[in-house]
TrEMBL record, chain A:
SUPFAM superfamilies: S-adenosyl-L-methionine-dependent methyltransferases. It comes from the Eukaryota. It comes from Amanita muscaria (strain Koide BX008). Keywords: Cytoplasm, Methyltransferase, RNA-binding, S-adenosyl-L-methionine, Transferase, tRNA processing, tRNA-binding. Residues 4-177 form the tRNA (guanine(10)-N(2))-methyltransferase TRMT11 N-terminal domain. GO terms for molecular function: tRNA (guanine(10)-N2)-methyltransferase activity; tRNA binding. Its EC number is 2.1.1.214. This is tRNA (guanine(10)-N(2))-methyltransferase.
Automatic annotation (TrEMBL), chain B:
Interacts with TRM9. Belongs to the TRM112 family. This is Trm112p-domain-containing protein. Pfam families: Trm112p (PF03966). Gene3D superfamilies: 2.20.25.10. One of its GO terms (molecular function) is protein heterodimerization activity. GO terms for biological process: rRNA (guanine-N7)-methylation; tRNA methylation. InterPro entries: Trm112, Trm112-like.
Length: 471, 123
C-alpha cells in the first residue's frame, strides 16, 4: 500500500531534484514513483512512497527538500482542493477529537494578504478539528500552498493577482528537510582551508548524494584539489582517498596539510584515508575494483587547467641525453626534481576518466563528475560519445550559467568483468568522429563563446583575461 | 597519513617496472598513531583486496608484529579490531617508500607521498 507525499522543494537546481531523490532512495533501499502530472521543474511535487519512514529518510538526506508533507489534496481551485481533501478524510479524521494543531497558508511567487489567509483557514472549517490551536508546539502542522506563475521582471502592485494561482496543495507536515542546513555548515567561506577552485557547498553536497556515500564506503577523488567533495562524503560516513598531480593544492601552507585541517573542522579527519601526489594517467594503483564511488570536479581550464606528466614539446635528442646524464649523477646542490607537465585537454580527460572509473570502481559503483559545456553547442551525444561498454549513464543534470553551463554526470558501472588498467595512450582512447561541445572548453571560454573570433591555440589562450570569470 | 591500507594498494609504476614492484619498502619512517572509527563491515569487505604477506611485512618493518602470518579464515571481532588498528591507525608522516625492483624512491613529506614519475619514467 503506497501513500502520497507532497515535497516542497528549495527553488534551486531543478534538474538535480529527481537524480537526488533517486540516489537517496537507492541508498536506503526503497523506491518512489511520481504521481500523475508531477513536474520536477515546479516547487511542489507529489510522490508515492511505501511508508512514512521513507519520507523521513528523504527529508534527512536530500539537500533540495525544504519539507515533506503527507498529501491530502490539490486543485486548481479551492473547490477542487476541498473535494479532494474530503475524499481523503480517512487520512486525517483521527486528528479531529483532540490533537493540537497549527495551520499555515503560504504561496510560492506571491504573498497572500493576511485577510485572505484567514479566509483560507476558515474554508477548512468542515474538517472540524476540536483540538486546540497551538502556534508554538502543535502536535501536527497543516500546510496549504498556493503556487503562482513566475512574475519575475514585471512591475506589479502588492498582492496583485491574489488568488489566481496555478495550483493549490494541502497536507500535514511529516518532517522539515534537515539536510539543507548542511549548506551553511560546509560553507566555503567558513572553512579553514580552501582555494580559488573550491566547489560551493550546496553543489558538493548534491554531488556527494549522487555517490551514495555512507559508512564503510570507499570514495576516491582523482582531482582532489582543496578537497571540496571529500568533506561531505566523509561527513556521511565514507572513507575518502584523494590524489592530485599538484600536491600544493592539498597541502597549502603549514602543518598538517590544509585538507586535514579543514577535515578536522568538520570532525571527519579520521575518514580522509590518505592524500597522494600523482598524475592519474600514471597512477600507482596495484589493482582495480577498489572504490564504491569516484567523485571529482576536474579542472577545466578557466581558473586552473588540467595537467598530466610529459612535455609539451619533446626534448631534442642532445638535450634529452644531457637530461638523462644529469638524472644519473645529480649534483649535491640540485633543487628537488620537479617533473614537467603538459596540458590535458578536457574532452580527452573526460573520456579517460570514464575508462579509469571502469577499472577502479567495484561493480555497481558510481562515477560522479562535472563537465562544463557550451550551452548552444551541447548535444546529448557529447556525453554518449565518451561512454564505454560496461558503464551506464544514470543522471545528467545541468547547472545553467547563461552562455555556458556545467553538467553533473552520474555513471554506474554495470559490468562485473575485470578490466585491465587503462594505458591512457592516444591509441587506446575512445575514438569517435563526434566533436563534443566541451572540447577545447578553455579556448571557447576565453573567446566568449563566439565562433567568429580568431582561434587561439592552447598554449596562448590564457592571455585574454577580460572575460568575466565565474567558474 | 600513509596508512598501511594505502601502502598495500600502491605499487611502483615507473615505465617497465612491472614485476617485483610491490610492496614498496619503507625507510626512515616517522610513525604516529591516531584513532579511527571502527567499521567491521568495511574491514571484512576489504580483506579480499589485501596482499596479506605484504601487509604483515610492512607492519613488522614498523615494529608491529600482531598480525598472523596467514590470514585466518574465521574473522572474529578481536581479529578485525586489530586489523583495523594496523590498517587505519598507523600513519607514516615522514620518510620514503622505495621500489624493490627499480629502486625508485617515493618521498613522504607531511604525510603525503609523492608518487610522481620523472619524465624518463612515464609510459
Amino acid at each position: 500500500m503506497s501513500h502520497q507525499y507532497l515535497i516542497v522543494f528549495a527553488q534551486a537546481h531543478n534538474e538535480f531534484r529527481l537524480p537526488e531523490l533517486s540516489s537517496v532512495s537507492e541508498l536506503h533501499g526503497f523506491t518512489y514513483t511520481l504521481a500523475d502530472g508531477s513536474d520536477p521543474q515546479r516547487p511542489f511535487m507529489v510522490i508515492h512512497l511505501a511508508s512514512e519512514e521513507h519520507a523521513r529518510l528523504l527529508a534527512r538526506r536530500c539537500i533540495l527538500i525544504k519539507a515533506i508533507y503527507q498529501f491530502y489534496g490539490q486543485g486548481s481551485t479551492y473547490k477542487e482542493l476541498h473535494e479532494a481533501n474530503r475524499a481523503n478524510r480517512a487520512l486525517w479524521e483521527s486528528y479531529i477529537p483532540k490533537t493540537s494543531f497549527k495551520f499555515i497558508v503560504t504561496a510560492y511567487n506571491h504573498s497572500i494578504p493576511q485577510r485572505r489567509q484567514r479566509e483560507v483557514i476558515e474554508s477548512f472549517a468542515y474538517m472540524d478539528f476540536l483540538g486546540k490551536i497551538d502556534m508554538n508546539d502543535p502536535e501536527i502542522l497543516l500546510g496549504c500552498f498556493e503556487e503562482y506563475p513566475d512574475k519575475h521582471g514585471t512591475t506589479r502592485v502588492k498582492h496583485e493577482g491574489d488568488g489566481s494561482f496555478l495550483q493549490v496543495y494541502f497536507g500535514k507536515l511529516i518532517e522539515e528537510g534537515s539536510a539543507r542546513q548542511l549548506i551553511g555548515q560546509f560553507d566555503v567561506k567558513k572553512r579553514v582551508y580552501y582555494g580559488n577552485t573550491s566547489m560551493e557547498s550546496e553543489i558538493s553536497l548534491l554531488m556527494t548524494n549522487q555517490t551514495l556515500a555512507a559508512p564503510g564506503k570507499l570514495i576516491y577523488d582523482p582531482f582532489m584539489g582543496t578537497g571540496s567533495m571529500a568533506y561531505p562524503a566523509a561527513y556521511f560516513g565514507a572513507f575518502v582517498f584523494g590524489s592530485d598531480i599538484d600536491g600544493r593544492q592539498m597541502r597549502g601552507k603549514g602543518k598538517p596539510p590544509g585538507i586535514i585541517r579543514a577535515a578536522k573542522q568538520y570532525g571527519v579527519a579520521a575518514r580522509i584515508l590518505d592524500l597522494c601526489t600523482f598524475d592519474v594517467t600514471q597512477n600507482p594503483w596495484r589493482c582495480g575494483e577498489l572504490f564504491d564511488a569516484i567523485v571529482t570536479d576536474p579542472p577545466y581550464g578557466v581558473r586552473a587547467g588540467a595537467k598530466r606528466l610529459g612535455r609539451k614539446r619533446e626534448l631534442s635528442p642532445e638535450r634529452r641525453a644531457k637530461y638523462l646524464e644529469h638524472r644519473k649523477s645529480p649534483r649535491p646542490d640540485d633543487q628537488p626534481y620537479i617533473p614537467p607537465t603538459k596540458p590535458y585537454e578536457l574532452s580527452a580527460l573526460a573520456a579517460d576518466l570514464v575508462i579509469l572509473a571502469r577499472y577502479l570502481l567495484k561493480p555497481g559503483g558510481r562515477l560522479v563528475f562535472f563537465l562544463p559545456t557550451v550551452m548552444d553547442d551541447y548535444q546529448e551525444v557529447d556525453i554518449n560519445s565518451m561512454m564505454c561498454s560496461g558503464m551506464e549513464l544514470i543522471a545528467n543534470s545541468l547547472q545553467d550559467f547563461g552562455s555556458w553551463g556545467r553538467r553533473l554526470v552520474t555513471i554506474r558501472k554495470t559490468s562485473t568483468v575485470k578490466y585491465p588498467p587503462p594505458s591512457f595512450s592516444p591509441e587506446e582512447a575512445v575514438t569517435s568522429e563526434h566533436v563534443p561541445a566541451h572540447k577545447d572548453f578553455r579556448e571557447k571560454y576565453f573567446r566568449g563563446f563566439r565562433t567568429d573570433a580568431p582561434h587561439d591555440n592552447y598554449e596562448t589562450a590564457g592571455s585574454v583575461p577580460h572575460y568575466p570569470i565565474h567558474d | 597519513m600513509v596508512r598501511l591500507i594505502t601502502h598495500n594498494l600502491l605499487a611502483c609504476h615507473a615505465r617497465g617496472c612491472t614485476s617485483n614492484n610491490f610492496p614498496l619498502r619503507f625507510s626512515d619512517a616517522q610513525i604516529e598513531t591516531r584513532k579511527a572509527d571502527f567499521n567491521a563491515d568495511f574491514i571484512r569487505a576489504f580483506m579480499p583486496k589485501l596482499e596479506w604477506s605484504a601487509l604483515v611485512d610492512a607492519a613488522k618493518q614498523l615494529g608491529d608484529t600482531s598480525l598472523p602470518l596467514e590470514a585466518p579464515d574465521m574473522l572474529d571481532e578481536e581479529f578485525l579490531k586489530n586489523l583495523h588498528r594496523v590498517l587505519l591507525e598507523i600513519h607514516i608522516e615522514e620518510g620514503s617508500m622505495t621500489c624493490p625492483n627499480c629502486n625508485h624512491r617515493y618521498p613522504i613529506s607531511n604525510g603525503i607521498p609523492n608518487m610522481l614519475l620523472a619524465e624518463d619514467e612515464i609510459a
